Amino acid sequence: MNAQAIRILFLKDLFLSRWPLFGYLVGGLASAAVACLPNEAAGFIGFIMMVTVTIAAGIHLIGVLLLAESADMTRTFVMSLPISLLDYSVAKIAVVLVTFLIPWAGMLASLMVMVFVIPEAKPGVLPFLVMVFLFMLAGFCLQLITAVITESVGWTIVVVVLGNVLLNVFLKELREQPSISSLIESETLRWPPLALQIISVEFAAICVALGVAVLFQLRRKDLA
Amino acid sequence: MSAVLDPPLGAIAAASLRGVSKTYRHFHLRDIDLEFATGTVNGLIGPNGAGKSTIMRIMMGLVRPDRGTVAMLGRPASSSESSAKREIGYFSEDMRLYKAETIAFHMQFVRSLFPDWDERYAEELLDRFGLIAKQKIKGLSQGQRVKALLLLVLARRPKLLILDEPTNGLDPVAKQEVLSELMQTVKDEARTIVYSSHHTQDIEQICDTITFVDRGRVIASDDRDGFLNGWRRFRLQAPGSWVPPQIAGLRAEASFGNLRVMTIDRYRPDVEEQLEASGATLEGSEAMTLEEIFLATVTRGREECRR
After folding, report:
1. Residues of A with CB below 8 A from B63's CB?
2. In whole angstroms, what is the distance from residue A68 CA to residue B256 CA?
3. How far apart are CA B268 and CA B212, in angstroms?
4. Which CATH number fits domain B13-222: 3.40.50.300, 3.90.550.10, 3.90.940.10, 3.30.70.360?
5. Where are the domains of chain B?
6. Which tens digits make up the pLDDT trace of B123-170?
7. Which chain A residues contact residue B98 at CB under 8 A?
8. Which of the residues A8, A70, A81 would you substitute to probe the B interface, choosing the one with the greatest number of B C-beta atoms within 10 Å?
9. Do A224 and B110 touch (CB under 8 A)?
10. How many angstroms separate the CA atoms of A176 and A154, rounded?
11. Of A147, A212, B145, B184, which residue is the least packed, with the fewest Cβ within 10 Å?
12. Which residues of chain A does B115 touch, with a Cβ-Cβ cutoff of 8 Å?
């Protein structure tokens, strides 16, 4: 593995995605700010905006950085350079993940800060937010695997839609769990065992998805 | 048929393919054996879909063959191996640059991966090709796009250049500029070029050795002079009862009344004597262009496959 080549590829892709990345970061931070307004309707709208920004960022960044490179034949140009498939795969998956994580982490971090800074906010909501954000990250990783394996915009959109449906089911199920729903209005921050179990499963799913994405990319026979 | 051209004495092969095969759903590349000697300019000619691009992609490690071995500059070619690519420049007609970025961005990107990038030469090429570094790729014409890609390939001073249809879609002026630059490049005797095209004139102009590819097979391989001097077409007047003599390398024969046209691929000066001794009157003999030789070879190859 050539660390220098990976760094160059990573920075190149980061530069290529600078404008959408900036847009999603601004959109995400604005959504987080709306979600923290001391008004129930604003909180709901802000939450929906955050989910929308996350889903849009995921599909757009996968499209710009991964699918477009294969469809536009720019990958042939990149792979004609002294870069191995391992360098390419590691750099590509890392940059797609990092560009998604920037607005994702920006939103989650600003929510965390605001939960503790705004007097009216309920810190107990934090585990709920972490579970939801990790669910969206896991959904993004699933989209990433789909894009790597199929190189198809159509299939990736199918997974996005499926992920969106599952997110709604997940939110409903969470709210129906007494140990979780009681957290949302709680003034104190607690991490019940069920929340920790869900977070562990989400982490495991994310790791497996990323591993599969790298492995599949490495097993690819033809790049052009 | 497969073919291996013996490299000149003392020469080391810059690239070699041994028993390479690749199967797609509707296309098979079969048993390709090729060797490209260091310091030579090698042409691959074939119709669209013949397998030229697949051969080149396999050489670059972009496509993994189902069978066979490929060595590039003494190292194995594979997608996991990147060291050989440090000294190889690859151009493909379907290769694209990032549309929204400038030529300067691409120069900077490629330079960061090639320590031997020749900035002065890159600037020279910019000037010679009439390109502007700040120009975005999406604003370039087809000819400018090809020149920008060639600039990115040539300025790294590669030992081996693999060029897949570089003059496709170029106007005659742009084509001549590109070919002239390639001729300049091959003045360095240590540099090897593998050049594919279905434009036989381009290949005839710059290549030392030529390989014909059709339907996934190598159907002939020889040096340029071997092809051009070896092939001849004879026009004869002969009565209907005339029995043609046994001539080595007879490739095609056609009759139009008493006029006979014979094509041979192993011309020797005594062929005319043989024909006249057989009772025919020789009206003329002419050398064939590479395109005619290619067409005759492809036609014969396809007829043999059908039998």
Report:
1. 221-224
2. 57
3. 23
4. 3.40.50.300
5. 13-222, 232-287
6. 999 998 899 999 999 999 988 999 999 999 999 999 999 999 988 878
7. 16, 74
8. A81
9. no
10. 34
11. B184
12. none
